[in-house]
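fyi for ur records
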Amino acid sequence: MNDFDIFRINCWLEDLEDYDYRSSILVTVFEILLSNNNNEQSRSDIFIYISKTLGLKIQYQKFVEILDSSDDLELDPIDDDLLIKLKEDSLNKYRERLDRNSIDHLIIKYCERENLDNKVAISIRDILNKSLYTNINSFVVSDLKTLISDSIRREFSADEIEYFNSFLDWNDLEKNKAIYSLFSKSIEFALLTSGRGVTAISKDLFEGKTYYLDTNVVIRALGVDGIHRKESIISVLDSCYHDGIKFKFAQATYDELSSTISKRANDIVEKTSPEAEKILLSTRDELPVNNSFETDYIFNRKNGTVTSPGKYLLTLEQKLQEFISKYSIEVEKIKNISGISINKLQNKLYRSKKDEFKVFGYSKGAAIVDAKNILHVRNIRAGNDHNYKDIKSFYLTTDSTLNEIMSSITPSVASETILPSQLFLIHNSFHKDTTNEDYNNFIKFIKIRRTEFKLPGQEIFDFIDQVRGIDSNPDMIVGNLKAYANYKFKMKGNKLIGPSKIKTFKEFTEDRVTKELAESRQFLDKYSKQRSIALSKFESLYKTSKLIAYLFELIILSIVSLVYISISSDIKSTLILFIVIASARLFTLMFKDYFGIHKWMKNKLFLFLVKRLTFVKLYPEDSDLNEALNHYLDK
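which gave:
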C-alpha cells in the first residue's frame, strides 16, 4: 500500500452533511484505493491495513456491512473474498472535490501570485502538515499518528516561516475556508476513528465538561501577548462558555498567575527609566522583540492607558478580575496527589522539553504547575479517561509541546491536555453557522510565532541601558537591535559556538560602532586626500584661465585691426588707430581689477575648468572647496 494522505481525507469529507463513524471508515477505504490509483484491492487486505497499519478499531463484520452499504464502491467476488475499487462516477466526483477543496491548488495559486518558486510551495505545505499533526496528535490512534509523524519535518528556516505566515495573511476567503476545513475535518476524522466512544460529532460530546486553564491562556486573554492572540483565545473561550463549558483555576495556577503578574510589573519598576521609555515609546512598533509584559507596558503607555508601572499592575489586576467574573471561574485546591507523583511527572516534563523539543526556557517551577494540573485532571477523571464523551475534565494549555509529551506518555488514553485551536475546531464543528470571522480567527491559531528570530521582550529595557552611553539615537538603536536579532539567530544555529561566545548587545553595538567609525575614518582620509588634490589644481587652473583670457583679448584686438586695415586705404590713420587701441588695452591691463570684461572672462573660464574636476562633481557643497573657489574668483 502507498502512503496514507491525511490531506486528501478532507476532500472526501468536505461535502458530507451527516459525518459519522461509518463515513470515517468509508473515506479511509476511499483514500486507500485512491493512493493505489484505484486498482482493485481485496477486502481482506484493506481490512488488515485499516486495523493493523492504521490501528483503527473495527470488527470485521462491521467493516463488511459498511462496505456493502456503500454506493460508491464496485465489488467483484473472488474465492472467499471481494475485489474492491471506486466506481467511475465516484472517482470523478472525488476529483471534482479535490479541485474544489484541496489546499494544494490554493498554495500554488498564492505562489504564482507572488512569483514564488515550487520550493516555497512545498515548504508551506510541510509547515501546514506539521501544524495539522500538532492539532490531531492527541486524538488520533497511535499507529496512524506514527504513520503521519514519519513524514513531518520539524525544523524550518526563518524565510520558510515568513512565507508560511504571509500565505496565512493573504486576504483570500477561499483559502481561509480551505484551511479551516482541512483542520476541522481532520480532527473530526481523528476523533471518530480513535476508538474512544465517539460515533458522531455533536454538542453533547462536551456537555458537563470543565477545563482547567493554564497561566499562559489567561495572560493571552489579558492582551499581554498581543492583540491578535488575545482575540483568538477570547473567541474560543467565548464559544466554549456559550456551549456550557465551565472554566476553573487549579490553586497552583492561580498562585502562579498572581505572582507572575506582580513580579513582572515590579520588574518593570526596577528596569525602566524616563530615558529608556522615551526611546521605546518612539520605536515600539519597529522593535524586533517578542511580546512580553515589558512590551505590553510600553504599548499601553503609548496609548495613554497607563502612566506608570504601578498603574500598569493595577490595570492587569483589574483585567484579571474582570476575566474571572466574565467566565465565572472558580479556584480549586489540589488534593490527594502525592509529592512523589508530582516530582516524577515534573522531572519527566522538564527533561522531555529539554531533550526532545530543545525548549530551554521551560523552568522547573512551570513544570511543577503543569504536573499538578495534569495529575489533578487525572484524579477527577478517576480512571474514566478512554471515552471522550464521558471524560469530564481537560487541562487547557497553549503549550503544544506539552500536549505532544502527554500524548506520548499516555497513548492509550485521552490526553489530559488540550489546545485552544483543538477546542475551537471541535466546538465550531457542531455549529452549522460557521462564519467568515470563524475562518479568520482560526488562521490566527496556526500562525507561527517567529520567537527564535526575535529578541526576548523582557530584556528590552536592559538592551536600551546597555547602549545608552554608546548611542542614544532611536533609529540607530532599532537598527542595531534588528542586526543583533539576526546575529543571535545565526549564532544559535552554529553548533560549534557555545552560548558564552555569543556577544552581548553592548559588545555587539560597540563592535558595530567601532567598525562604522573605522569605515568613516577611512572615508574621511580618502575624502581629505581627494580634496587636497583638487585644491592643489586651483592655482594652475587659475593661471590657465588668465592666460586664455589674455589670448582671447589679443585675438579680438588683432581681428579688429585687420578688419579695419582691410577696409581702410589711409595707412597713417590706421597706424594711429592701432596705437590708440593698443594704448587703451595696455591701460586696461595695468588696471584690470577695475574693469569687468577681463575678470568676467577669466572667472567664467576658471569656473568651467574647476567644475570638470571629479571631486567638485561629487562634493560641490564642500565648504573648504567653496572658500578656495571664492578666493580665486575675487582675485
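The mean pLDDT is 82. thats all i got for now
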